UniProtKB/TrEMBL annotation:
<dbReference type="Pfam" id="PF19291">
    <property type="entry name" value="TREH_N"/>
</dbReference>
<protein>
    <submittedName>
        <fullName>Glucoamylase (Glucan-1,4-alpha-glucosidase), GH15 family</fullName>
    </submittedName>
</protein>
<dbReference type="GO" id="GO:0004553">
    <property type="term" value="F:hydrolase activity, hydrolyzing O-glycosyl compounds"/>
</dbReference>
<dbReference type="GO" id="GO:0005975">
    <property type="term" value="P:carbohydrate metabolic process"/>
</dbReference>
<dbReference type="InterPro" id="IPR012341">
    <property type="entry name" value="6hp_glycosidase-like_sf"/>
</dbReference>
<dbReference type="InterPro" id="IPR008928">
    <property type="entry name" value="6-hairpin_glycosidase_sf"/>
</dbReference>
<dbReference type="InterPro" id="IPR045582">
    <property type="entry name" value="Trehalase-like_N"/>
</dbReference>
<feature type="domain" description="Trehalase-like N-terminal">
    <location>
        <begin position="17"/>
        <end position="172"/>
    </location>
</feature>
<dbReference type="Pfam" id="PF00723">
    <property type="entry name" value="Glyco_hydro_15"/>
</dbReference>
<feature type="domain" description="GH15-like">
    <location>
        <begin position="237"/>
        <end position="600"/>
    </location>
</feature>
<dbReference type="InterPro" id="IPR011613">
    <property type="entry name" value="GH15-like"/>
</dbReference>
Amino acid sequence: MTVTTTASPRVASLDLGVIGNCSIAALIDRRAHIVWGCFPRFDRDPVFCSLIDNQIDDGDAVPKKGVFAIEMVGMTRCEQSYLDNTAILSSVLSDDQGNALEILDFAPRFVRFERFFRPPQLVRRVRRISGRPRIRVVVKPCLGLGEEPDEITRGSNHVRFVGADQTIRLTTDAPVSYVLESIPFAVEKPFSFFIGSDEALRAEIETTSREFLDKTTDYWRDWVRSLSIPFEWQREVIRAAITLKLCSFEESGAIVAALTTSIPEAPGTQRNWDYRFCWLRDAYFVVHALNRLGTTRTMEDYLGFITNIVDTYSESGAEHLPPLYPITRGGELREFEVPNLAGYRGHQPVRVGNGAATQIQNDGYGAVVLAATQSFFDRRLIQPGKEALFAQLERMGERAIAVFDKPDAGPWELREKEVVHSFSSVMCWAACDRLARIAGTLGRADRKEYWRAEAKRLKGIITERIWNQEKGHFVSTFDGADLDATLLLIAELGFVKPDDPRYIATVESIGRELGRGDLILRYGTQDDFGFMHTGFLICAFWYVDALHAIGRKDEAKELFGRILQRRNSFGLLSEDADLETGELWGNFPQTYSMVGLINSAMRLSRNWEEAF
């Protein structure tokens, strides 16, 4: 898919491409500017932050700071596309005089010395296509939260941007003085730009650039070949799978909710959060998607991250399980505001860290057990679940029994109110249900019977408390009257059968009351910040899956096709979409949304045997 834009004043947008290597990632806009990127990993301070600091010099389309721009003089068009089945982005810049050039952007990733080579480094490779194009390079990294470098030093082929806590090095075979002073120069031969950690490049620049490009291309195409994909929507699923992979921090196995912070869920709402962390709630859905794709290595790494959390929690003696974790499980998630960043389109505050880490969210126990269940049944995994892990998970189950009917902040992380959320209770039931199944496969008849009995007991209590006879549907809280979109999941979790009339009635009620065109609200009630103004995209995919489950398969397929049209020009999704215009809002790219796309496509597609 190739997308074209014409030269125009720069406006912040989520029409962005993503590149990365499972260590770092960067976002590139429709003018081929790098507008977001954190070094040396996803959750560190953004070196390129102009996406959330939309300040532009007078008469210039390039931000004052936090950007890496390669501007073609006189450019009138920019055509962009990914190299097929890769995370390498091509931007072809041209003017009306026959001049054209290509920028290839990527983060090196390939096997070297029998291990993955994924340095905290981006590569920009520029080559002439036709005419005599001229470029102006603008490299304005931030070191610290929106702070400009303390010092800039240079060598014959590099520039160092020095800050108090980090130094970034740019190595290039382009004229360094032209780069430092943003002086235009002609592209008469290929130029390469390596930017990342302060390490010298120990080989010839052009040769290294070509080698990294070729090997990274081969890596991604080999990885895509290994995917199990549906017959229909292959391109969409491949792009979603690559994006999900790019959101994984391979060193620990964690998968972040998104690569950005503080992109508002809707304009003017202050729903600006930092999503560069790993949420336990996402675990089941992510593992489900990875399993369907056949990406066993990424899945096993992620399961390793989850089971390490189990170990740490058991050893700590903590009363509550945190709902989210840093990508290395260490450090704080203290939330604070950054006043010197202007915000996405000026929408403040810009937040770093996430206060939800201190909330009580009781669905986490079920999320961990559900995710870990895979390791007891999947014979492809090198480290299958064993008795020791089962013993740790049983502690999670006991905690689920203790809190299944207790108030919490719930799946939507309410900040000012705690109630007993139906979803949290059902997830606690799911922990008991899966523990019974695990016990069965381990030959532990006594534990199987115990957990089966507890699951039955919890199910009886929960069902009575979340079914509203007067409304004729399940409700979002114990003894409540309102709906929320997580009720769409109770059949997938196995709490009820898809053909249960109560579930069908609930799905239909959600469609009527929470549906807004092709989108679904998380809930229709007022919360700490008012009412919802955008549709949460994962909820739309949940609704598609629910329609399919209750037999409305043609309707589900048609709706899925329309939701796919909400993707940006690069095939990516954020967290939310405007109910009227469809414009994307919320942190980007949103793992949850890409997982929802994958799972729905797998569910709806004809299988390969039926296709021919």
